[in-house]
Specification:
transmembrane, 460 residues, mainly alpha, transferase, MBOAT_fam, 3 domains, globular, Membrane bound O-acyl transferase, MBOAT, transmembrane helix, 22 helices
């Protein structure tokens, strides 16, 4: 095993984890044929997830998972009205405590692995389930559409709950899904109901996702030795000019993203093969199966985002959706529009969820600034009359360049994690990715153009 690990350039613990992670693909496929009805499938989902966790992280991993599961389930049993709030703070607090105890960020940088990454996924699952169970007490007419879709009227059984949390190793890297979807999938309800329409074939989209996973791994392994992050702290980096340093930071961020693209592509394979990734049919003729529930990243959407506001829609998609439904939307008072406070609070929760390293906090604060600055540019773009296509395209190109610049500058903090290294990396390029968003936000408060479409609507 050590020889294989060295061959692909990872540590033995990471290699062992990768074996278990890839094993989720066949295990998810076999879920389709588990006998015993829904109960048999719940037991299979829970047991395979627990065994894979034990093989990847050791016995203590399942103990940590069990703490999160028991905390949240007990709150739903004994305090339904407040179980969402209780679970949010207790589960998130326990996760933060484990982040601090294991110092997981440093361990990952050194080639190690621990269970905190999986705990992050389970934490989101137990919080959303508890909040949706609490929403089951509210009147439906007062709820947002997402609340109506996901609310739980009945308390799931404990085995259903454990199966939902550990289903076939989906807790390794996501994607995050809802308890209601898990139950409908297991019991063949909703879009999974047996009907005259044949079940969607998972094989073609699975092969596409597998090919994508292989391509991403190949790109990452080929680029990682050429752009080591450690070079940012070396004397040779300090001798480079501004453009060269900024370009190297871009390449470091770009290279790191392919590791995540690989991980999420493997997860996509597992979700598609199990059938849980199915999200309905298109309205085309003939209808085509959609697999959005399995998709956690749109690679081209990330790399060629026209605006920073598009990044949450293409990167770690289901976590972004979770943050929107369970943090961002719930901080907006009824009848009022969301603002920078809701955005900053959401990004802060995301930062703490990732870990307590300064690099995470700085990155997500930077993300809030980046998105706000991009929205300013977009408002200017909308104010340009449609007849002036050249200027519109120029501003659109400006927003694209701004997003590339600030995203890859900010991502360095997410990668290096420590405060000193983050500040030094930002200082080496004169804090350009911080100054530009702040300047745009200030200019946006001074220059407030009216949308160019308003006049056209009046004339119509």
């Amino acid at each position: 095993m050590e020889e294989m690990a060295l061959f692909i350039g990872v540590s033995p613990p990471i290699f062992q984890f990768l074996i278990c992670f890839v094993a989720t693909i066949p295990l998810s496929f076999f879920h389709r044929y588990v006998p015993g009805g829904p109960m048999g499938k719940h037991i299979y989902a829970a047991s395979t997830g627990a065994v894979l966790s034990y093989m990847s992280f050791g016995l203590m991993s399942n103990m940590h998972f069990l703490v999160l599961i028991i905390i949240s389930y007990a709150s739903m049993v004994f305090c339904r009205k407040q179980c969402g709030v209780i679970t949010f703070f207790l589960a998130m607090g326990y996760l933060i405590g484990c982040h601090v105890y294991y110092m997981s960020g440093d361990l990952w940088k050194e080639g190690g692995i621990d269970a905190t990454g999986s705990m992050m996924v389970i934490t989101l699952k137990v919080i959303s389930c508890a909040i949706n169970y609490s929403d089951g007490l509210l009147k439906e007419e007062n709820l947002r559409q997402s609340q109506k879709n996901n609310r739980l009227i009945k308390l799931p059984s404990f085995i259903e709950y454990v199966g939902y949390c550990l289903c076939c190793g989906s807790h390794f890297a996501g994607p995050v899904y809802e308890m209601k979807d898990y139950l409908d999938w297991t019991e063949r309800k909703g879009i999974w109901i047996m009907s005259e329409k044949p079940s969607p074939s998972p094989y073609v989209p699975t092969v596409k996702a597998l090919f994508q996973a292989g391509l991403c791994m190949g790109v990452y392994l080929s680029m990682k030795p050429r752009y080591p992050l450690s070079r940012i702290t070396e004397p040779v980096y300090k001798n480079w000019g501004f453009v060269e340093r900024l370009s190297y930071q871009y390449m470091c961020s770009f290279t790191t993203r392919w590791k995540y693209y690989f991980i999420w592509s493997v997860s996509e394979c597992s979700m598609i093969l199990s059938g849980l990734g199915f999200s309905g049919w298109t309205n085309s003729s003939p209808p085509i199966a959609r697999w959005e529930r399995a998709k956690n990243v749109d690679i081209l959407g990330v790399e060629f985002a026209k605006s920073a506001a598009e990044i949450p829609l293409t990167w770690n998609i289901h976590v972004s959706t979770w943050l929107r439904h369970y943090v961002y939307d719930r901080l907006v008072q009824k009848g009022k529009r969301p603002g920078f406070f809701q955005l900053l609070a959401t990004q802060t929760v995301s930062a703490i969820w990732h870990g307590v390293y300064p690099g995470y906090i700085i990155f997500f604060v930077q993300s809030a600034l980046m998105i706000s600055g991009s929205k300013t540019v977009y408002r200017w773009q909308q104010a340009v009359p449609s007849t002036n296509r050249g200027l519109k395209k120029m501003i659109m190109l400006l927003n694209f360049a701004y997003t590339v610049l600030v995203l890859n500058y900010s991502a360095v903090g997410f990668i290096v994690l420590s405060l000193n290294e983050t500040i030094n990396a930002y200082r080496s390029v004169y804090f350009i990715g911080t100054v530009v968003p702040v300047v745009l936000i200030l200019l946006g408060n001074i220059i407030r153009p009216k949308p160019a479409t308003s006049r056209g609507r009046k004339q119509q």
